[in-house]
Specification:
ten-stranded mixed beta sheet, 21 strands
């Protein structure tokens, strides 16, 4: 018992001395694990905080109804509301009307007669404001956060005043007003191209983005929509059966069969699902740093074990068993993992706090724009990411621990160590690579490509397991003339006989470079495909639309003949009408967009087709669906789509469902609408009963284009006020889209940079481990007559050869990972495809930088190894 206690004290003292005597080595491993844990935890905290705040904002604005009624397309007929309110199981029914307006960047009072008002009011740089109209008398039980609160001393009739609005705190902040300044303050907004003046009559407590509430009758007047509402929220009586009420609602007359009954949490759940793939991908990318950090731990501990081999052998002589020596290395790794994880959780919390206060919770994805979340720190998440750090550290320490266990004590004490290695086996690498390929073809799990992520990990492990075999294959191609030169023979023979050591040296190179190559190819492929997509969807040089938003029912912003009027102006060669709206085909699935364009004839717009279009003529109306719609509804070119007929029956003026049939003419690529879009020809849309009003007009100028005032005058008729127009060129749209793209991938760039930096640390640690462990070898070479310059040449040549091999293997593995990311992860996560593009110059630069770093590191380590201390190290065996 006493001897065991003495041995335990000896082992712990041995580890403690290692940690104290080599603080730089300990710090390197700690930084790697700390950064990996910090980035992963920070991304998780930011995403979770933003999602929680967004969910609270959605609940605040949408209220807590038991059921919500929506139309498949457009709005609900106003006549439906009393029928719903009179249902026996419904205690309260609240009608809603919704629109979005533009708050101009420069406002002028229209009553002042300022002639510049027309120019300033069309400023497209203003902020948007969501406007909700409802009945204040019925609001309290359904949406208390939207209940108007009058200013002190105001008349209760202001609840129904036609110019009275009630703003939340975010809206007041947009208008740069404090609560005292807001009392009865007037401001202007642009609605459907018309400048309107409103009065702030009070506030609402709704959180989240800027929102305004007003009486539904007043909003109907401003929108000129007297026969439609956007949705109806209902509260059920205590004794009512939800299923029975839904059944009763479905039993309404046939012309109302397009009404969908939804659970109130559906919208919130959809946004969570929409952002989930983005959040998971960011978390996985953040954990890439932890993955490469495990290889750095491996390199550092390999260096430690190599330098302490005689001490491990002495411990074996004193009674330490092989398992105890292995446990000793794993215990050191556990201490490093715990310290690094604790520091990583602290650093990650700080990074998350800074990001939330400086950048918001958006992280470039655009899902939580306008949300300013507070930090939501989760002990469970901190524990999970801390355990991941510990597991990664132990995984990186496993091979060095095995090396400490397998040391031959007698040979090691004599300075001989292990002079041979087993023949490398290729079957484990082939098994890992085969499993990776098989998993790459697996479907996603709950919309998350979990199998694809595992396939990426197995591909990297399989590639690194194949490094000894690849090294042998490459050495077999070397010409025999190199073996006749002493210096090159030393490098080649060591690489041939010590393949495991070479694998240790290039492991960090392969891990970091492969992931850097994969991310570079993925981002380049996406950016290039998006630029090609923008060229297809933005064929016109100029686009014009009315300033200000439209309602949820998609009220047209411009007259039906807007394109015809503009085409008659001098300087306009051609004008095409376009319309955008939303379509809700099923309460279980998200709303999709419908885009009406000229898709037939000489002026037909070309879509970025993936499949189709179908050439054969067949009965029915052709529609072109995006990849997301094809996946969500399981459609292929040539399929019929009867569900779409039900949605378009709302266009019938006789309140009877039309007998129109639709078939899928093609599948096209869309990088904007994650849940998909349908493209429909303009003439087919008119034939279905569409009113022909226009959301946007594409213009092809010729010569000198007409002025803004001329276009506004051309769209003015019947004594109406002149609409304010927004003009944007296709060039500006492309630049804006690419800026959004780069902002979305900004976090990816930073995560990639951290992974590369950790990989470079791994290169330095790996070569230091290999070179410093060979001090006796270099000392013997010096005694045999090799100069210091000869030794440095050998070391630099080895560094060049090893890093070149690592760069080759890392690039090949990175391209394999990129194929999985481009062709599996992105389609499964975001429902779109892209073409694989290889930025050869950038990839060559990455490989060259890694090779240069490896050569410099090997040379610097070789200088120390070839010093006088290395010569004297030979005396240790005398």
């Amino acid at each position: 018992m006493n001897s065991r206690s003495t041995l335990f004290q000896l082992l712990t003292s041995f580890s403690w001395q290692e940690l104290r005597q080599h603080p730089w080595r300990t710090a390197t491993a700690l930084v790697a694990i700390m950064l990996g844990v910090a980035l992963g935890f920070a991304v998780h905290v930011i995403n979770q905080s933003a999602l929680d705040e967004f969910s609270r904002a959605v609940r605040s604005v949408n209220g807590q109804p038991d059921l919500q009624l929506h139309a498949m397309q457009g709005g609900l007929p106003l006549a439906l509301y009393p029928q719903v309110a009179q249902n026996a199981g419904i205690t309260t029914a609240v009608p809603w009307l919704e629109t979005t307006v533009l708050l101009p960047a420069s406002e002028t009072d229209p009553a002042s007669g300022d002639s510049s008002a027309r120019n300033t009011r069309g400023a497209a740089q203003g902020s948007t404001l969501r406007v909700l109209g409802s009945d204040a008398i019925k609001l309290a039980p359904v949406a208390p956060a939207l209940m108007p609160r009058l200013f002190q001393g105001a008349s209760r009739l202001d609840l129904f005043a036609p110019d009275a609005v009630f703003l939340n705190a975010a809206a007041l902040q947009v208008l740069k007003l404090n609560p005292e300044q807001a009392v009865n303050a007037r401001f202007q907004w642009l609605l459907n191209g018309q400048l309107q003046t409103l009065r702030i009559a009070g506030t609402v407590t709704a959180s989240g983005a800027a929102v305004a509430v007003m009486d539904i009758a007043a909003l109907q007047e401003k929108l000129q929509r007297f026969e439609q509402i956007d949705r109806v929220d209902v509260l059920l009586s205590g004794s009512a059966s939800r299923s029975q009420v839904i059944k009763d609602l479905h039993a309404l007359p046939a012309w109302q069969s397009q009404v969908l009954v939804q659970q109130p949490s559906d919208d919130q759940q959809r946004v969570g699902e929409m952002s989930r793939a983005y959040r998971v991908n960011l978390t996985v990318l953040a954990l890439v740093a932890l993955f490469t950090g495990a290889f750095l731990v491996f390199s550092v501990l390999a260096l430690s074990v190599a330098q302490r081999a005689p001490q491990f052998a002495l411990l074996a002589v004193l009674g330490a068993t092989p398992r105890q020596r292995m446990a000793l290395v794993l215990l050191e790794a556990l201490v490093l993992g715990l310290l690094g994880s604790i520091a990583g959780i602290a650093l990650g919390s700080l990074l998350a706090w800074l990001a939330l206060h400086m950048l918001g919770g958006d992280l470039g994805g655009g899902f939580f724009a306008g949300v300013q979340p507070a930090l939501q720190w989760s002990p469970l998440a901190a524990l999970v990411f801390g355990l991941l750090g510990v597991i990664a550290t132990l995984a990186g320490a496993w091979w060095p621990a095995r090396s400490a266990m397998d040391l031959p004590p007698a040979a090691t004490l004599k300075g001989l160590g292990s002079n041979h290695e087993a023949q490398p086996r290729i079957w484990p690498a082939l098994a890992l690579l085969a499993a990776s390929v098989a998993l790459a073809f697996m479907p996603p799990v709950a919309g998350i490509p979990l199998a694809a992520y595992i396939a990426v990990g197995l591909l990297l492990l399989g590639g690194m397991a194949a490094l000894p075999w690849l090294l042998g294959a490459v050495l077999g191609l070397m010409p025999n003339s190199l073996s006749q030169q002493p210096l090159s023979m030393l490098a080649l023979e060591r690489a041939r006989r010590m393949r495991r050591s070479t694998t240790v040296a290039v492991g960090g190179v392969v891990a970091s470079l492969s992931l850097a190559v994969a991310l570079t190819v993925m981002v380049t492929s996406f950016r290039g495909s998006m630029m090609q997509w923008l060229d297809a969807v933005l064929p016109a040089p100029l686009y014009v639309r009315a300033a200000g938003g439209s309602s949820r029912a998609d009220a047209a912003l411009l007259p039906a003949d807007a394109a015809q009027r503009l085409s008659q102006l001098p300087g306009i060669a051609r004008a095409q009408p376009m319309r955008s709206s939303t379509l809700l085909l099923s309460p279980e699935k998200p709303a999709i967009s419908i885009l009406v364009r000229p898709l037939k004839g000489a002026d037909a717009q070309q879509l970025p087709w993936v499949q189709g279009p179908v050439e054969a003529q067949r009965p029915g109306i052709p529609v072109h669906i995006s990849e997301a719609v094809a996946q969500l509804y399981g459609l292929q070119p040539g399929d019929d789509w009867p569900l779409l007929s039900k949605a378009f029956s709302t266009q019938s003026q006789t309140h009877q469902a039309q007998a129109a049939t639709f078939y899928i003419a093609s599948i096209w690529r869309d990088y904007v609408r994650q849940f998909g879009a349908i493209a429909l020809d303009w003439q087919d849309y008119l034939a279905l009963g569409g009113d022909g009003q226009v959301s946007e007009v594409a213009l092809w100028p010729q010569g000198t284009p007409p002025t803004q005032q001329a276009m506004e005058s051309a769209l003015t008729s019947n004594g109406q006020a002149t609409p304010a127009l927004e003009f944007v060129s296709s060039t500006a749209l492309r630049e804006r889209s690419l800026r959004i793209f780069d902002r979305s991938f900004a976090v990816t760039y930073w995560l990639q940079a951290v992974a590369i930096a950790i990989g470079l640390f791994g290169i330095a640690a790996s070569f230091s481990a290999q070179v410093l462990a060979r001090r006796k070898e270099f000392g013997l070479l010096a005694h045999l007559g090799l100069t210091r310059r000869n030794v440095l040449t050998v070391v630099a040549a080895e560094g060049l050869a090893w890093t070149a091999l690592g760069a080759l293997a890392g690039t090949l593995l990175g391209l394999g990972v990129a194929v999985i990311l481009v062709h599996v992860v992105n389609p499964q996560s975001f429902h779109w495809t892209m073409e694989l593009r290889l930025p050869l110059l950038r990839l060559l630069s990455l490989a060259a930088a890694v090779v240069l770093a490896g050569v410099i590191t090997a040379w610097l380590a070789g200088r120390k190894a070839a010093s006088t201390d290395a010569v004297l190290a030979v005396k240790e065996d005398w």
